[in-house]
Amino acid sequence: MITNTSLEYKGDLYPSKIVSYEHEGDSIFFHTDNKVILKVTILRDSLIRFRFTTKGYFSNDFSYAIDKTQLHGYNFLELTEEETYFLIRTSKVKCKIQKADLRLSIYDLSDLLILEDELGFHWEESYEYGGNIVKMSKSSKDGECFYGLGDKATQMNLKGKRLENFATDQYAFQKEQDPLYKVVPFYIGLHNKQSYGIFFDNTFRTFFDFCQERRNVASFWAEGGEMNYYFIYGPQMQDVVTTYTDLTGKPELPPLWVLGYHQCKWSYYPESKVKEITSKFRELKIPCDAIYLDIDYMEGFRCFTWNKEYFPDPKKMVAELAEDGFKTVVIIDPGIKIDKDYWVYQEALEKDYFCKRADGPYMKGKVWPGECNFPDYTNPVVREWWAGLFKELISDIGVKGVWNDMNEPAVMEVPNKTFPMDVRHVYDGNPCSHRKAHNIYGTQMARATYHGVKRFAYPKRPFVITRSAYSGAQRYTSSWTGDNVATWEHLWIANIQVQRMCISGMGFTGSDIGGFAEQPTGELYARWIQLGVFHPFCRTHSSGDHGNQEPWAFDEEVINITRKFVSLRYQLLPYLYTMFWQYIEEGIPMLKPLVYYDQEDIQTHYRNDEFIFGNEILVCPILEPNAVGRRMYIPRGEWYNYWTNEFLIGGRELWVDTKFDEIPVFVKAGAIIPKYPVQQYVGELEFDELTLDLYFKIGKEQSFVYEDAQDGYDYKKGRYSYLSFRTIGKEKELIIQLHKEGKYDTSYSKYRINLIGLPFKVTEIEIDNEKVDFDKIIFESSHVLLVDKGFNELHIVGE
Question: What pTM value is reported for the model?
Fold first, then answer.
């Protein structure tokens, strides 16, 4: 019998004093006398990694989140020893590490405190599982705000919230319900007009407390693994988000059709029903590029099979849909039905590819097909096998995209909705239990799917969408926000979720328009469409249990509103494509909450509804029924009402009238917005003009337009067109300067320039310093010009 209670002590443990240190290249190691080691790595002058171990040595350094293709480097690093602390300096920040207890504080170069430890790193021995519960607490300043964490159904500003990260199948979740499907342990802090970021790269179940338990303390902890986090210095929020997105990686450019409108339901079958749906879109002239097949297309829900009764000749059907402009996207789940006559099951069983329990038997759980085993996607050999399974779907049948669902992983009829925690995983050579692998299971499935789709879609670009994800999943896949509900509350949630995902590195995200569960009213569906067309991923999806949710399931007015807003999205496709290009090239989020747009304006710090779409369009959805307008905040600067062209000055909250077929949309003064003609699907039309809506401003502004062949990989060889428009507006003069980068020559030959808000009558025009015959260039009206696309400078003079 053990009587020494000290052996059973389970309280918090802390680092003791530093007894030695080493400086090796970009890393500095601090050793304490109780065997804690802190490794500080300077990746960039504004990006510092802090990694702790309590064992006296570090385990293998491995992360699924970090993009290993990114090169890092700093400009300046200096370590000095003072009486009570060590000082690390870069060209952007200073970091003090206390000799007595490893507590650290970070300052800018003017000695303004950015972040400091409260208790700092501490831990608790986990006797039940082995290892540690690792904890970190930071002091929070008065007025400090917190943002990020990806998929959360709560306010944009997380101050006062306590949140959990554990990928969970949350059917019909509610506002404030937590956790949800995705895990993004990254947040942004803002105080004293300075932003910083923390990425806690730990795949165990993690928790974040933003001053809920203790007023001026922000803390984060995990049920196992290492205290391993990255500090990112701004001082602007855009710097933090860009650095985090670089660290965890960016996607490749999707084909342009993926940015169109998609239609989905659980489920469209048989083939005649699918064609009825697609034909109706064309009949009603509502643009649509993709039709989805949910689990009922399979034979008994067996992945990589077809129900031949419903779809007797899938290759022929997919080809016929393609002739009408529809790309087919199919669902693939992780659960593989236990069936000795099912070829996918036979292969995985023969090759020992399924996840196992701790005592040896295969993990078994019920999903749609019944009892299933589940591939271990943390095994690179299994991922390679899984990728190869897509040959028939993609290469032979012609499916254009794959949709991974139920990959939290979700398991039915068990209390925790997922695998038992004792399930074992290869974890790319770092064997572990499901406690560690759970949060990255969905990402590794999407990764394997991506490589398969990419292999067999080549030379076209792949399209993959996932429900569950961990930081870094954006390198392989888009996502949606899971099984939402047809309520006004969920419209509010969807708006915030997608904004938050965009500043959390996973920009290519949308919600199930109209709500997955239950049935929306026509008004709710119309308002959701009006929001959804401004999300990076745009798809209506619903549960067949609750009625129909196609645009024509409602009245004529809703059909017209749907057509109007989906058509607007198709007009804005070059603007969307440019947003995406800037996301993959520079890590700029496609949607920007107002606090991201202007963090120095304290009025933006608690705004939830309004957001910036791209760089130049302000959107504010209508989130309640029977609205004839709403109060909204117009950020600082000059703006035009998109619908009326009315000019206004921002930096204030005001009432905006709106109709049922409108929501408040404003365009930044000085912007040039590129537009295509409305197409029923991408590639339907050839056109000879690119419309440019130019919103006049006195002063200078810059806008961009990215274009390429709309699919394929020639853009990686420089065959793209990136136009930079610089506008200089004066009282009676407008100069448009154009610079082109890239070798791609667009098919159109002219720009149709709509001059909006021009305060003078045009009397003279010069192109590249040559006066132009006035009568030949004015088109339709004095404020619409048609010019050849090859100019360098357009000079418009008035009186």
Answer: 0.96
